[in-house]
Amino acid sequence: MKRKEAAPVFKPYVMRQISLIPPSYDELIEEKHLVRTVDEAVEKIDISALLNQYKGGGTSSYHPKMMLKVLVYAYCEKIYSSRRIAKALRENIHFMWISGENKPDFRTINAFRSSRMKPVIDDVFSAVLEYLVEGGYVKLENYFLDGTKIEANANKHKVVWAKRNENYQKRVREQIKGLLGEIEKANEAENEEYGDDDLEELGGNSKEDINSERLKKKIDELNQRLREKTQKKETRQAMKKLEKDCLPRLEKYEQQTETLAGRNSYAKTDKDASCMRMKEDRGAEKPWPKPAYNIQIGTEGQFIVGFSVHQRAGDTSCLISHFEKMRKGIGKLPKVAVADAGYGSEENYDYIERLGMQNYVKYNTFYQDTHHYRKPELIRSHQYRAEEFGYDAEKDQFICPANKRLNFVNATRYKTENDYLTDRRNYQCADCQECPLKPHCTKAKGNRSIRISFRLMAYREQARNNLTSERGIRLRSERSTEVETVFGHIKHNMGFRRFMLRGTEKVNTEWGLISIAHNLRKMAAQ
Questions:
Q1: Residues 6+ apart with CB under 8 A from 487
Q2: What gap in Å lies between CA 227 and CA 237, rounded to an integer?
């Protein structure tokens, strides 16, 4: 007899069933869910700086505490677009719970992020950091500093370059001088008075360059003089080109120079962003600099303890402003500063010493000073450095590996980007022509010369002793897994590789939210 097969069994599935007692969102969210961590943290921190952004009277606003919770949780969930945040508030029960079923639209969310949060993001971040310190997650002892480049929200094909701008200004000034020369020749009285020079207001009898203000005065004067006499066709054409073409171009180039403010470039669609080479483009055949920001962060236990946004690609000039921002935010600095060779300058070492921090910052030749090659033929793979020369303090002379002496020539003063003054002493050998070690010492045709800062040498020795100690070796190994892990988590796991907002202040706000979100995610995972 054939056996009868059992019928399939399904769980109940009834749509549009009416419930007399609808479930609470609180019942649907797990006890240790990330959204509860965000809610608890924002409830406990001091947000008085954010509340002070609101004036009394007028129509009611969404509560800033609710808006802050929504923004931070959205960044925790890798949702950065204001439209997607608004969509989550309508569809996601976690967003509905943390917002108390408030549903601000995307314009309100974006206005809160870019306007309300912009002046107070550093205060809110400091409040979260204090919350982490009170919870024992951060101790502010070992501070691991490093930087990365994050692409700006700007068109990489619309960029103003400093060198091109300088060349364009030079050309238009030469063109202006030529046109003025043609006009001056038409006025014999001015030629007799000024000769071959331009008028004083253009800098003809001084070393000052032509600028738009002087050119405007000159054009007005020429127009007044030419009204009193019959104008030749050539003069009218020269005046028209001077006024309608050269002056607007000169004004544009001067405005670009002002916007550059010493930088090598800026993006037209985000004038605060500078072009930088991105790490992810290193393997490309033709890597092209992109508009970006240099983001500096300091970590401890892979929590972000401090952050700053910079417009220059180099890390060296960022250390002091980074620590100053941190000191202003939380009122104190960590005990130990740990950083790679990109920060090892005399200016930074002096700053660390003055503020009483311990120096565990590498310098650019630290690897050569601490690694010894086993193969003799590899020992001279690099040129002899000044640090390898002996020094005779009594005679103030350096002694090269060939036992020749380098005599003191002069002293020069050097100023950094941050206006830090340092003295450099220059020494030169009297005769290197017949020296058998010259190919390993210098590539110059003449004699070997070196530039020395004794203060920098002392700082480097201090850093080398600290870094090669037992504690220094441990901190060096930790540094490689501290900051890089955080950057990797933010870029890869959180998918944040490009800013949504434009301008340094708004970028600072966005990175502050990313840092807060990272810290709360890290805290919830422990």
A1: 146, 148, 297
A2: 15
pTM of the model: 0.86
Q: Which amino acid is located at 408 in the chain?
A: F
Integer Rg of the chain from CA: 32
DSSP string, 74-118: HHHTT---HHHHHHHHHH-HHHHHHTTT----HHHHHHIIIIIST
DSSP 163-223: HHHHHHHHHHHHHHHHHHHHHHHT-HHHHHHHTTSPPGGGTTTSSPPP-HHHHHHHHHHHH
Give a yes or no: residue 126 inside a domain: no
What angle, 0 to 180 degrees and rounded to 10, lies between the N-to-C axes of helices 34-44 and 64-76? 140
Q: Domain for residue 515, yes or no? A: no
pLDDT tens digits for 365-383?
888 888 765 444 444 445 7
Please tell me the distance from the alpha carbon of residue 182 to that of residue 180, in angstroms, as a whole number.
Answer: 5
DSSP H or E run through 48 = helix 48-51
The count of domains in the chain is 4
**Structure tokens of 207?**
């070393």
Cβ 247 vs Cβ 212: under 8 Å: yes
Shared domain for 172 and 242, answered yes or no, is yes
- Mean pLDDT (whole number) for 217-233: 68
Range of the domain at 63: 25-117
Contact (Cβ atoms closer than 8 angstroms) between residue 49 and residue 120: yes
Q: In terms of Cα–Cα distance, which of 144, 141, 478, 482 is closest to 334?
A: 141
CA distances from 13 to 9, 93, 249 (A): 12, 21, 72
**For residue 122, pLDDT beyond 70:** yes
CB 240 within 8 A of CB 222: no
